[in-house]
Specification:
mainly alpha, two-stranded antiparallel ribbon, 11 helices, 2 strands, rod-shaped
């Protein structure tokens, strides 16, 4: 009992000495360099274990004595008993406090909103296009096989058929007029050469000077009138070509769009009719509702295209009558005046329609440009 009391008295007396060592930074650094001496001054209990209160006090003072520039977020000090080989070990590790929270916040930011992927949008467009193409192809095959029904506007279909038939006839007139123009051009060229030959012989043949001269003048006059007629025919060809290849073709392009809209309308109409004939339950009602919406969209598109075709056909008919009336009058008057030999009437016809003849060789480059 006396030994234990002496031991506790010795430990109590060593306690102030430990506090003095912890309070002085320089002595704390020396204690860090010699862990065995510091361990000897740390108070322990009777069973050889470190007292908790003194351990916490020692850790706090030693942390204050450490240099600031060590870069340690937090320092943890562990003391072992006398039987351990490691005494007064200082362990450094991250402190699980505000520092870890700041590291978590400084990481990559992930947006909660979904970003649209262009590849997925294109894939969705391809899927819709494929589905629409399949339905339209099925509708066309059903119509050709006589199994499917199609929407027909009898009055509009009749006008479209007449327009296509007239286009073929106008193209035939154009081919014939171009052939006439080519042949007339060759005849005028031959007449001009023939007139030059007669004029040359008129100068070299004194006995037949007058005869060759008359023929030379006649052929040159015919060539001149032929050029005038050729200008009228070419103007006729250009005007009818514009009517056929631009005005009528633009209307037929709208007709093709109308027919495509009609096929789509019939395809979605057929789908809706098939769904309405089937059972109505929780699985089919959403499909019927979606099919009804698609049918309504294509019905509006079909009605719009039908109105556009009707308007264009009306304006085309008015424009066609006006253009062909003027061109047919020009063609008739020019041909009649030419074969009647009425040069004044032929020239007056060209002035009436504001046709300017090109001087032969006017389009050819000059000798300076050729150099």
């Amino acid at each position: 009992m006396s030994e234990r009391s002496n031991e506790s008295t010795t430990l109590d007396e060593s306690h102030p000495a430990a506090e003095e060592v912890q309070s002085d930074p320089e002595e704390g650094a020396m204690a860090q360099e010699s862990p065995k001496n510091s361990a000897a001054e740390i108070p322990v209990t009777s069973n050889g274990q470190l007292e908790d209160s003194h351990e916490h006090s020692f850790n706090r003072d030693l942390k204050r004595s450490l240099p600031v520039g060590l870069g340690l977020s937090e320092t943890k000090i562990t003391s072992h008993g006398f039987d351990s080989t490691k005494e007064g070990v200082v362990e450094a590790g991250p402190f699980p406090g505000k520092g870890s929270r700041a590291q978590q916040k400084s990481g990559p930011v992930v947006l909660a909103d979904e970003v649209k992927n262009p590849a997925m949008e294109k894939l969705e467009l391809v899927r819709k296009w494929s589905l629409n193409t399949y339905k339209c192809t099925r509708q066309i095959i059903s119509e050709k096989l006589g199994r499917g029904s199609r929407t027909v506007d009898l009055e509009l279909e009749a006008q479209i058929d007449i327009l296509r038939d007239n286009k073929k006839k106008y193209e035939n007139i154009l081919r014939l007029a171009q052939t006439l123009s080519t042949q007339l051009f060759q005849m005028v060229h031959t007449q001009r050469q023939l007139g030059d030959a007669f004029a040359d012989l008129s100068l070299k043949s004194l006995e037949l000077h007058e005869e060759f001269g008359y023929n030379a003048d006649t052929q040159k006059l015919l060539a001149k009138n032929g050029e005038t007629l050729l200008g009228a025919i070419n103007f006729f060809i250009a005007s009818v070509t514009t009517l056929v290849n631009k005005t009528i073709e633009d209307t037929l392009l709208t007709v093709k769009q109308y027919e495509s809209a009609r096929i789509e309308y019939d395809a979605y109409r057929t789908d809706l009719e098939e769904l309405n004939l089937g059972p109505r339950d929780a699985n089919t009602l959403p499909k019927i509702e979606q099919s009804q919406q698609l049918f309504q969209v294509h019905k509006e598109k079909y009605d719009k295209m039908r109105n556009d075709v009707s308007i264009k056909l009306k304006f085309l008919e008015e424009n066609k009558v006006k253009v062909l009336h003027n061109q047919l009058v020009l063609f008739h008057n020019a041909i009649a005046a030419y074969f009647a030999g009425n040069q004044k009437q032929l020239e007056q016809t060209l002035k009436q329609f504001h046709i300017k003849l090109k001087t032969p060789g006017a389009d050819a480059p000059s000798w300076l440009e050729e150099q």
